[in-house]
Every structure is written in C-alpha cells, then in structure tokens.
Amino acid sequence: MTDRSFAKDIGDEAGSPAIALPRPQRHRLRTIVILALLGGTGYGAYATIHNKATATGAPPPSISATILGVKAAQAKTQNVPIYVTGLGTVQPFNSVTVKPRVSGQISDIVFTEGQLVHAGDELAHIDPRPFLSPLHQAEANLAKDQAQLNNTNADLQRITSLAQKGFATGQSLDTQKFQLAGLQATILADQAAIETARTQFDFATITSPISGIAGIRMIDAGNMITPSDPGLVVINQLEPISVVFTVPSEAIGHWAVGRPTSIVPVTARSPDNVRLLATGDLSLVDNHIDPTTATIKLKATFPNNDHVLKPGQFVNASIQSLLLSDVVTVPSSTVQQSTSGSYVYLVQPDMTLAQRPVTVARVAGDTTIIASGLSAGETVVTDGQYSLKPGLKVSILPNDAGPQKIADRTSAAQ
C-alpha cells in the first residue's frame, strides 16, 4: 500500500475527503496504529490465560506471605514491692553556731576550716586579762572573810569557856554565834563570786560543744566579738546525718506516727535518680499531715561515713511502703491505651495476635500489675505495638533483637 492510498483509506473511514499529509506525519501515524493493534492482541491473550487459570482454581503466581517478628514476654505471678519516693533535704544530725559567752578581743584562732573537731576541743581564745581582776578580787575577799571567820570562831570559843564559868553572859555568847554564822554566809558568797569570775575567765576559751566538721570561719583573730554577733563558726555533725523528705500521706496511711516499730530501709539517690548515694533507716514519721498538700514528712538517718551526703543537698528518698503478694504482672511497655481503656496484644497458640482488654491495678516502675483480663503464663507483645493489628501472624524474636524484623518469608504454593 502506498502512502497516498493509506491516507485515502483513513479519510474514507472518517467519512471525509482524504487529506494529503506530509511524509513524516504519515510515518508516525502508521506506527501508532500498529502499536495499538499489537497491544490489543497481547491483552486478549493475557485475559484468556487468566480466565483459564481462575477456572481451574490455580492461585496467582509469585504471591508471598509475611510473618512479623515481635518481642514478647509471659505474664507471671510474683510478689511486687511498692516504693514511694519523695524529694528530701539533707540535714546535719546536730548543728551548732559557736558563739562566745563573753565579750572581748580574739587573741588567736586554733582550728582550721573543714577540720573534724570533737566536743571540748579549743577553737579560739579571747584576751583573758579583763577576767583576771574580778577573779583575783573575789579570791581576796574570800581570804579576808575567812580570816574574820577564824577570828570570830576563836572569840566564840573563849566566850563559851567564860560563860561556862559564869564570867560571860548568855547574850554575849549568842551574839558571837550570830556573828560567826554571818561570816560563814559571807564565805559562801565569796566562793560563789570566785566561781562566777572563774567561769567568765574560762569562757575566754571558746570550745566546741559537739563533734563535727567546722565550716567557714566567720571572724578573724584581732576582732572584738560579743555574744550577740553572728558567731565564730558553724559546726555540723555529719556522722550520722539526716534526710527529711515528704511523701503523699495516702502512701503510708497504714503507718503509725512516731518512731517506726521495725527497721524500714531508705535509699537516697541523686535528683536525677541516676546515682545511688546512700542507704539508711527510717527514724521518724511526723505527727501531722500538711492539709494544703496532703503530704507528710519523714525523717531518715544515714551513717554517712564517706560524707557523700552534705547538709542542704537535695536527694530523692525512697522507701518500701507496701508488698503485694502473688499478683499477675507484665512489663509496663506491654500495656497500651485506647479510647475504650487499657489493652495488650496477646500471642495466641497459633502465633496470631489478639487484642485483649485488661484492668491495671497498679504501675510499679517497669512492672505493671494486672487486676483482670490476663492470666499467668500467657504471652504478650512488649515492643512495637504501633505496627500491629489483631489477626496478624507473628514470630517471637530474642530480647536482644531489633524491633519489627521480618522473621520469615515463605512463598505460597506455585
């Protein structure tokens, strides 16, 4: 067929006069028509084969089934301790601001900042000279009054002897006795004055009232100091040491106030809960609840031999408030939430998933206590639940395997 006759045929099929096309356009049009005819022939052959395969019940070729790998754990029965944690502040077991009892000029300071001092150790000295004069004067008065007492006592003995012989009246004898009694009272007053003066003199030496660590010195030698001043130094007892913390009152509602009747361990951790700082024992449950916050204060005592706990430090203090026995537990990552409540993905014996509603009794860290809906020994999915759905077939991965791996891919029957 020539190009012209081909163009004529096309024009006849359209019911219109033939249009003479340029040679390049005629070649393109011919190619399109040929490809269209070949495509129609191929589709017809495919439809015939497909219909025959369907009629004989043969499955489509190259269709594969996927089994999804998941991490899982078994629900189990166990005893679960319930812990309650509160933010606490470290406090020294004893704390004393050392102040002088007398006024004067500090002559020297004999302690070092940060030093461990014991009760009775000397810390500083105040110039003692102003306290010597009253002491010497009181001692002189005692000596003078003692001499008068001795003389009066001798006179009393003489008058008593004369009165026995009838040479002295009873009145003179009584008068001498009264003078002797008065001088004895004066002697007692003189002794008290000496004790007072000696005490003031002793107060010129400032000593530590407790054993502990000396802090930063608040005054230097050469300065005047009085009892009303801020003080010389603060001494804190660090061994043992205390932690006062608050917890919800409901958490220990079954406990009595006061000192606990048994040993209750307490752990102190850093505020970020990363480091365990110390372990001690509960020493006191406060005798009232704060009505504004519904919390109660607890006090714990720690040996603190390494001085890791320091006064004023914030810590997280934890105690075991309750022990739940023989309860069904699962890892906390197992339990999911929806608008209808809590649920878990249960791995059934045929390795398919089922969505099981559960009732959560309590969450204790990484462990969740199930009140109902699950029995011990049943297997539940612990990771990757967002990609799961009921009826999906799964295989259980080792705990150290990556999540959501394809565990098996099998081909269907050919």
Automatic annotation (TrEMBL):
Localization in the cell: Cell membrane
GO cellular component, one term: efflux pump complex
Residue ranges of domain Multidrug resistance protein MdtA-like alpha-helical hairpin in the record: 135-203
Domain Multidrug resistance protein MdtA-like beta-barrel: 240-320
Keywords, in A-Z order: Cell inner membrane, Cell membrane, Membrane, Transmembrane, Transmembrane helix, Transport
Pfam families reported in the protein's UniProt record: Beta-barrel_RND, BSH_RND, HH_MFP_RND, RND-MFP_C
Domain Multidrug resistance protein MdtA-like barrel-sandwich hybrid: 94-234
GO molecular function, one term: efflux transmembrane transporter activity
Ranges annotated as spanning the membrane: 31-49
Domain Multidrug resistance protein MdtA-like C-terminal permuted SH3: residue ranges: 326-384
Family assignment from sequence similarity: Belongs to the membrane fusion protein (MFP) (TC 8.A.1) family.
Protein name (Swiss-Prot/TrEMBL): Membrane fusion protein, multidrug efflux system
